[in-house]
Design brief:
mainly beta; six-stranded antiparallel sheet
Length: 675
């Protein structure tokens, strides 16, 4: 009645009392005919009732009204800001919906067929304790681009939670899972241990996919990964999170047009690996190899101060596995791969769970160690043809057989930093390595994750780094700044609203075809630093504030001339990570499109409809950027196509564009799913 099941009262009622958000928790029964108002929906689904009876989740197919959430009235002490505004989670899954809503332009004929996937936190259950943004269960939003049988290019949307052990345990316990990343001190440690005991207690009921999936949310990245389990190579897609094994997500281009299905963490079982994996594995298009590293959060690696690095060949087989030593156990999120080298960082962001005991009220397992110098640890790459020899080892050490010997390059004392994301890296001659990345002069992950806005000194700036292989020294150079920077002046439409010294830059990338090679162009999201919550635009009063809470636009940097181009979103629109995708038969490195989700806040209308967030998939001209003029004042210059999605897309993290040849056929899906 009214969308709320008449059974034992649980925390779910709070979710279902929310206006227009469409998940009802009822006995598992067939639901709906798969039709939406104003959309084409190709299929519907139910979920099986939980073991032992009770209530199981069923996705109610409702009209695709935009799910608004007015977070402006949230009590900061009682509820995290990340449960409001456009961070607020959506509560239903859409399956195979053709985009037929508001649209600008059309899909370019030379945009490749494939799918854009973007991962991000989306709690399945409202947290009843302190919530950090990185703690939400992963949800993948996908937009499929294809040419249908009638020759018309169309786009289709779906979204799906990654069915992690985190979600399954939460479903079993009938309570929100513990938000691990915001726990502090001895009481936080006890909460984590209690949660682990619950996991062990219910392990026999097989509510986890395997023995490794504990507390990970699979919410950070999504990556292509070649896998070979002994029965031949298959193309896998992984949903990734720093402190858990990856979850494999199966995709199919059969039917009309695509579905997602979580297969679990079995990806690691064929390899016998025992560690989590970075959300940013690096694929080398030149050699068809994948290089990855494990985030060493287990006690053994914390004591050994080591990080495992994996090399997977074009056939999906690990041909080399080694350990990179650092001076202390450190947190690393991303890394750099060049033609001959793998570059890891040793930074002040150290890992030590015992701090929660030593500082019983404020200790955190990851914290900044003042005075520790930042260095970059360089490991020689090898080829799968001869993993015992390396040109990189010859350059570094004068001996091609010293493939596991590393060399450390220190930044000058007083220039300590942490690099969260790297755009790309390459070698210049035999004596220099160059890479670009987002630089934090200090980082407190708990503060960064749980409070908004983070302190200004925790926000990222964009830097160019250089390693001199002759002198053994490292150096860095600020890219955007009024003084002592490579770029001292921004395009006019950026600089008006965002002084260059207030510029915050992150989510940087290059053309995927230039990975580990010199990139002429880099792309990154930008915004002005938010210093107070009052600067956020409130859905209840859109005339106050200047930011919707995320990125104001995208920058394109020429790494040779340091010229900058920009696409700037309107005041009531922000965007997420923007990825470059080459057009079909591209003629130059920047000949392609930028793809992203953007979300706009539509003001309340005269009919009394409340202000609503509306999300779009957008394609932008990467080559000409702002020279591509909009013929619709509602969308900014640079946009060539923009189509409204049937659901709001919360602010999220990282994505991937996946071409058709990397998707599987319908027959590859598990029989259980096809039922």
């Amino acid at each position: 009645r009214g969308g709320v099941c008449q059974t034992k009262r649980t925390g779910w009622e709070k979710v279902m009392d929310r206006k227009s958000e469409g998940v009802c928790f009822l006995p598992a029964i067939p639901v709906g005919n798969g039709k939406f108002l104003g959309s084409k929906c190709v299929g519907s689904r139910t979920t099986r009732q939980r073991r032992g009876g009770g209530v199981g989740p069923v996705r109610m197919q409702m009209e695709p009204g935009i799910m608004s959430f007015n977070g402006a009235e949230l009590d900061e002490e009682a509820q995290s800001i990340y449960m409001g505004y456009n961070w607020a989670p959506v509560k239903k899954e859409f399956i195979l919906c053709e985009l037929k809503g508001k649209q600008y332009g059309k899909i370019p004929e030379d945009f490749p067929s494939g799918m854009y996937l973007r991962n991000g936190p989306n709690p399945l259950r409202d947290p009843n304790n302190q919530y950090g943004w990185f703690d939400g269960s992963g949800m993948i939003h996908s937009v499929r681009f294809q040419e249908d049988e009638d020759g018309v290019q169309r786009a289709y949307y779906s979204n799906r939670w990654v069915k992690t052990g985190f979600i399954k345990i939460s479903d079993l316990l009938q309570r929100p899972p513990l938000n691990v990343t915001v726990q502090k001190g001895i009481f936080g440690l006890l909460k984590v241990l209690l949660n682990l005991l619950r996991v062990v207690r219910f392990d026999a009921q097989e509510y986890r996919y395997d023995n490794y999936a504990l507390l990970g949310t699979a919410n950070t990245g999504v990556s292509y990964f070649p896998l070979n389990d002994g029965r031949g190579k298959r193309n896998s897609i992984l949903a990734l999170y720093d402190s858990d094994a990856p979850y494999e997500v199966k995709l199919t281009k059969a039917r009309d047009p695509i579905v997602q299905h979580t297969l679990g963490t079995g990806i690691y079982n064929p390899y016998g690996l025992d560690h989590p994996m970075t959300p940013h594995p690096r694929y080398s298009p030149q050699t068809k190899e994948m290089i990855s590293f494990g985030v060493g959060m287990d006690f053994g690696r914390i004591i050994r101060k080591s990080t495992p690095v994996l090399f997977i060949n074009a056939e999906g087989k690990i041909y080399r596995s080694t350990e990179v030593k650092t001076r202390t156990s450190v947190y690393q999120h991303d890394f750099v791969v060049t033609k001959n080298f793998v570059i890891m960082q040793d930074n002040p962001n150290t890992v030590n769970p015992f701090r929660m005991l030593l500082n019983p009220f404020a200790g955190t397992p990851i914290s900044w160690k003042e005075g520790k110098r930042t260095s970059f640890v360089v490991l020689p790459r090898t080829s799968s043809d001869d993993p015992k020899k390396s040109e990189g080892a010859k350059i570094l050490h004068g001996d091609e057989t010293l493939v596991d010997k590393t060399k450390e390059f220190f930044l000058p004392k007083g220039e300590e930093c942490f690099v969260f994301h790297y755009a790309n890296g390459w070698e210049e001659g035999d004596d220099k390595i160059v890479f670009y990345g987002t630089h934090h002069s200090k980082l407190n992950l708990v503060r960064f994750n749980s409070k908004y806005p983070p302190p200004k000194d925790l926000l990222p700036k964009f830097y160019r780094f250089e390693l001199d292989l002759t002198t053994g020294k490292a150096s860095k150079q600020l890219v955007f700044g009024s003084e002592n920077a490579l770029v001292t002046k921004l395009p006019q439409k950026v600089g008006v609203d965002c002084p260059i010294d207030d510029l915050v830059v992150d989510f940087c990338n290059a053309s995927p075809e230039k990975s580990s090679e010199k990139s002429e162009f880099l792309y990154m999201c930008y915004t002005k630093a938010v210093v107070d919550r009052n600067e956020l635009i409130s859905p209840s009063d859109i005339n106050k504030g200047w930011s919707l809470g995320f990125w104001q636009g995208v920058l394109k940097l020429n790494t040779t001339t340091h010229e900058v181009q920009a696409i700037t979103y309107p005041r009531l629109m922000n965007g997420g990570e923007t990825l470059f995708q080459p057009r079909v038969n591209a003629q130059s490195e920047d000949d392609g499109y930028l793809i992203s989700h953007v979300t706009a806040l539509e003001p309340a209308d005269e009919a009394g409809e409340e202000a609503q967030y509306k999300s779009y998939i957008a394609l932008m001209d990467a080559k000409n950027m702002s020279d591509t003029k909009s013929h619709d004042g509602e969308f900014p210059d640079g946009f060539v196509y923009c189509s409204q999605l049937p659901a709001r897309v919360p602010w999220g993290l990282h994505g991937l564009f996946l071409s058709d040849e990397l998707m599987c056929e319908e027959s590859d899906l598990p029989e259980e799913y096809m039922e």
